[in-house]
Amino acid sequence: MTLTDTAPRIVRYGELKPCKTAFIDAHTPGSDQKENFTIIGGGVSESPDQHVHIRDTPGFNIGAAGQPPRCRNSLHDHNTAEAFFVLKGRWRFFWGRWGDAGKVTLEEGDIFNIPTGIFRGFENIGTDYGMIMAFLGGDDAGGGVMWAPQVVEEAAAHGLILGENGVLYDTKKGQTPPQDIAPMPLMPEAELAKRGEPTTADVVPHYVARYWDLMALADRQPAKVIGPDAILRDRPGFEVDFITRRSIPADQYTCNAPEVLMPMKGHWHLGWDGGETVLAPGDTCLVPDGVARSVAPSMTGEASLYRIRRTDDPAGKTMPLG
User: Using CA atoms, how far apart are residues 39 and 62, in angstroms rounded to an integer?
Assistant: First the structure.
């Protein structure tokens, strides 16, 4: 799509508006302190209280999850791609029908392109509030979230019911689904049987890229992180590059697709015809296609950022395991 704006749009980290009731596990002990952020696109939140910062989508969605220590996001799946990089903290990702098929620990800057067709969850195992940034394939992010049955059952025991219309109802507030809206049915056994149970050895070598490896690979040119010829070979509807101070020229350039810039470390000067600004870690910048822009570190020291662009791959679907 072509965005109508002629200048970049920026969502600052300090201006992010969280939603604490975004998903069905919002009352479940151990998950009730998490915060969901919808930055670009409608995302997959189930709550009408979710704030959307930029509604236009460049072919994918950008969101984030913020959680205090030992807070977890329950087992779920999406119809389209889901990839994360760790902005702050230390996180454990786990997957499988019961969350015990495999796991991996990610540090700041690491990226995980999660395969579709498996239940996945994640937990902040650091000592401070942590933040992970998310990319979701497709303009509509696949139409929502599919929860493991035990998540739905436990949520109901704590007062939250998800309607078949995808809307959450909080019985603690006296809310119930309308008479013509039934609760979302549990995933049937036939569908559960299709969910993958890959091991850690199946997943980590093909779907995880480590920050310091990317820093080395991007010493002279941008490192291709997600894409058909990238470190993580995939066609999820977007491509991801990793850029350091020595891997991007300071000259202006244009792109025939919208581009999202997400600094990981350091401060980055962004210039375009008619304006300039500085991007900091946690900021998200959407640059429309056709806008001439320049990007360069604005100070000395460590500097890195993720760059995401739409591709023409259909539906934002992650390639299957194997």
Answer: 5
Interatomic CA distance for residues 309 and 236, integer angstroms: 11
Asked if the domains at 9-208 and 210-316 fall in one CATH topology, the answer is yes
Strand, helix or coil at 14? helix
CA distance 227 to 244: 19
Rounded-to-integer distance, Cα 62 and Cα 57, Å: 9
What CATH number is given for 9-208 in this structure?
A: 2.60.120.10
Report, in this order, helix, strand and coil percent for the chain, each rounded to 5. 10, 40, 50
Per the listing, tokens 């990610």 go with 106
Question: Is the CATH number of domain 210-316 2.30.120.10?
Answer: no
220: exposed, middle or buried (Cβ count in 10 Å: 0-12, 13-18, 19+): exposed
Question: Is residue 45 classed as helix, strand or coil in its secondary structure?
Answer: coil
Residue-wise pLDDT tens digits, 216-272: 999 999 999 999 999 999 999 999 999 999 999 888 999 999 999 999 999 999 999
Q: What is the pLDDT of residues 149-190, one digit of tens each?
A: 999 999 999 999 999 888 899 999 999 899 999 999 999 999
Nearest to 32 by CA among 19, 13, 50: 19
Whole-prediction pTM: 0.93
Please name every residue paired with 309 in a beta bridge, in sequence order, or none if there are none.
239, 259
